[in-house]
Amino acid sequence: MNFRPGLWAKLLLLVVIVAAGWLAMRATPLRGYVERGGLSALIVALRQACWAPFAFVAGYALAVTFGFSGLVLTLAGGAVFGFWWGAFLNTLGANLGATGAFWLARVLGRDGLQALLGGRLAGIDRITHQSGFAWLLRLRLIPIVPFNLLNFAAGLTVIRWPTYVAATALGILPGTLVYTFFADAILSGSQQATRDAFIRVAIAGALLVILSFVPMLAKRAGWIATDRD
User: Fold this and answer.
1) What is the pLDDT of residues 91-102, one digit of tens each?
2) How far apart, in whole angstroms, are the C-alpha atoms of residue 24 and residue 129?
3) CA–CA gap between residue 195 and residue 199 (Å, rounded)
4) d(CA 183, CA 75)
5) CB contact at 8 A, 60 and 94
6) What number of other Cβ atoms are within 10 A of residue 35's Cβ?
7) Which of 146, 185, 165, 186 is nearest to 36 (CA)?
């Protein structure tokens, strides 16, 4: 094993950056903005600001780059901007953040992991090189697979960045649309107890359940059956 001190330093820096991002959102005043009371106040403030869409996308991308939950931000986007604008801004922010996390892991962690694991990494590299798009797309379509973990994990493999971007953009789109619609429907339901609001919440809940079956349906339809990039 040829593991130079510089590789240890890069791996350690990656761990420190991710840990610092995690602690920043849980042990500082920033936590108050993602809890119910703080989030409600933030929604009101953002809706009145013309710069809100730009700040939201920048904040979303930065937070995801450093490991904060994309789901919380997606729900916030739907609550603040409604379905159509929220879906667009959420999609943009999520993809920018996923790219940021990918390159963070690639630059700081890839060489160190390769030196640490040696030949044991070759099998994973072969799979991601031959079927990286299909592999990543399947995982992106499964709601229970952590979004941030997959961002960093992909950066540690040899998957090409254009392949990563394409699979990520396509794979996260169904979930982004459903969660944005869900947040918008919930907010509408809490603001006015109408039949229409109840129907929207019910539809959103049904879509969340259906989303769990998307990978299986896509595979049966042959959309992700290929094993080549």
Assistant:
1) 999 999 999 999
2) 35
3) 6
4) 5
5) yes
6) 9
7) 186
* pLDDT at residue 139, as a whole number: 85
Which amino acid would we find at residue 2? N
The size of the chain, in residues, is: 229
- Other CB atoms within 10 A of residue 90 CB: 28
DSSP 3-state of 1? coil
Helices (DSSP H) in the chain: which residue ranges?
5-24, 31-34, 36-47, 52-65, 70-117, 122-141, 147-155, 161-191, 195-211, 214-221
Helix or strand (DSSP H, E) at 145: none
**Helix %, strand %, coil % of the chain (to 5):** 80, 0, 20
How many Å apart are CA 199 and CA 218, to the nearest integer? 27
What is the tens place of the pLDDT at every residue in 20-57? 766 665 665 555 555 544 555 666 666 667 788 888 89
- 184 sits in the region (left: phi over 0; alpha: psi -120 to 50; else beta) called alpha
In the numeric block, which tokens belong to residue 28?
């500082």
